[in-house]
Amino acid sequence: MRLTTKGRYAVTAMLDLALHGHDGPVSLADISGRQDISLSYLEQLFAKLRRNDLVTSVRGPGGGYCLSRGLGEIFVAQIVDAVNEAVDATGCGGTSDCQQGEVCLTHHLWCDLSKQIHNFLSQISLANLVERSEVKNISARQDARAGQDDALVVSRA
C-alpha cells in the first residue's frame, strides 16, 4: 500500500489542530514544532486543506488555522483526498499497465484492497482519534517537550 508522506503529514497536522484548536487558531509554526514537519511543507498542505474547506485561516496577531467544522464531521479519508493523495495498493499506481502494459493477474485484488482501505479511513473521524488514550498520551508528551524547548529559548535570551 502506498500512502506517502504528504497524506501522513496532512493527517498528523489535522490531528494536532484538533487537539490544540479548542482555545482558538493554531499557528503552523506551533504544529511544525510539535510534529517536526517543515513549516513550508505545512503551508503547502494547509493551502490544499483550506481549498477543500477542512480548515479556515485567521489572519493577524494570534492568527493561525481552525477546523472548518466539528471533529466528528472531518474524516481521515477527506484529509487524504484533500491533499491529492491516493491510497493505492496496486503496483501500477492504478494505471492498469502492471504487466508489460496490461493488467496483471492480481490487479483487481489490489484495487479492491485500495477501496477497502479508503472505506476504512472514511469511517474514522478526528473525534475518534482525539478520544484514543494513546493519542492523548503522545500529545501530552509533545506538549511537555515543547514547553521545555520554550523554557530553554527564554533562559538563553
From TrEMBL:
GO terms for molecular function: DNA-binding transcription factor activity; double-stranded DNA binding. GO terms for cellular component: cytosol. InterPro entries: TF_HTH_IscR, Tscrpt_reg_Rrf2, WH-like_DNA-bd_sf, WH_DNA-bd_sf. Keywords: DNA-binding. NCBIfam families: IscR (TIGR02010), rrf2_super (TIGR00738). This is Fe-S cluster assembly transcriptional regulator IscR. It comes from Pseudohalioglobus lutimaris. The lineage of its organism: Bacteria, Pseudomonadati, Pseudomonadota, Gammaproteobacteria, Cellvibrionales. The gene is iscR.
